[in-house]
Design brief:
The chain has 260 residues and is mostly beta strands. It contains three helices and 14 strands. The protein has one domain.
């Protein structure tokens, strides 16, 4: 069944391109973001997955809050969500499930080819029992526009692969990974020549929590038994691949964070 997922994603993309009514991109956009986790892919029938897409009223039963982000230790702000996978390994040094937390940021006055922060993503790399976790989950974004007025909300879906590595004496090599399965989703905007705009998503890891490990724009690495944070950055672009300009802007931000 999992082998059909790419086919259905391509079909959904083509359907979106065919049916969405496009309009010319305004000079600047402001919007709030709501995130939701869905379609978790179980590793086996023993997998234990919990998604909570409304943290304003507290967490779903069974959610482990060990090392939850301080601002989301009991509840989360509007638009936040969380996803947990795996049964904690009771004999380990860190007997906790793995988890993701999505904490959105209000976006103001952004335009084409301008990188902007859209959310914080927290990842707890717990030690779990084999075959009880997840291999993939979708992160859905709903963009509700406050400026300019009259723009309907846009819903986008980004698939995230959850890569569990074998634990060895090398903590960096043993780090588990959250990887974007797709980094572009089409928006309901075009430029003056009719080219469609996309929202390109990337990670900007917090080097203070990762100690300079191998995280990249499409991969978020976290060592075993720790929790770390990466910023989710977006860029509105007509080209479905990162240009040198966009990569340079994100690279400068990453270098700045390493030097702090």
């Amino acid at each position: 069944m999992n082998s059909l997922r790419p086919f259905f994603k391509v079909a959904a993309l083509l359907a979106t391109l065919a049916t969405c009514g496009a309009q010319t991109l305004p000079g600047s956009l402001s919007f709030s973001t709501q995130g939701a986790f869905s379609n978790g892919v179980k590793e086996s029938s023993s997998s234990l997955l919990i998604a909570d897409n409304n943290l304003t009223n507290g967490y779903a039963s069974g959610f482990d809050l060990k090392d939850a982000p301080t601002a989301m230790s009991t509840t989360g702000p509007a638009g936040s969500s969380a996803f947990q996978w795996g049964t904690a390994s009771s004999g380990s040094a860190y007997p906790h499930s793995s988890a993701l937390w999505f904490d959105p940021t209000a976006v103001s006055n952004v335009g084409a080819n301008q990188p902007f922060k859209i959310a914080d993503l927290y990842y707890r790399n717990g030690t779990i029992v084999s075959n009880t976790g997840a291999s993939q989950v979708d992160l859905g974004l709903n963009l509700a526009f406050s400026s300019p007025s009259g723009i309907s909300p846009i819903s986008l879906t980004y698939t995230m692969d959850l890569v569990n590595t074998v634990n060895t004496s090398d903590p960096v090599a043993s780090a588990d990974i959250v990887r974007f399965g797709n980094q572009y989703q089409p928006l309901q905007f075009t430029d003056g020549t009719g080219k469609r705009y996309y929202l390109y998503m990337s990670f900007l890891p917090d080097q203070q929590t990762l100690n300079g490990t191998l995280s990249t724009a499409d991969e978020f690495h976290v060592t075993e038994g720790t929790e770390a944070r990466a910023e989710l950055w977006g860029t509105i672009t007509t080209v479905p691949e990162p240009s040198s300009l966009l990569l340079g802007a994100l690279g400068s931000l990453l270098l700045f964070r390493r030097r702090r």
